[in-house]
Amino acid sequence: MSETVHERIRIEADVDHCLAVVLNFEAYPEWARDLKKVTVLERDEEGRGTSVEYRAAAMGKSVTYVLTYDYSALPERLSWVLDHGDSLRSLDGTYRFESDGSATRVHYDLAVEISVPLPGLIKRRAAGMITGTALKDLKRAAESE
Question: Which domain holds residue 111?
Answer without folding.
Answer: 3-144
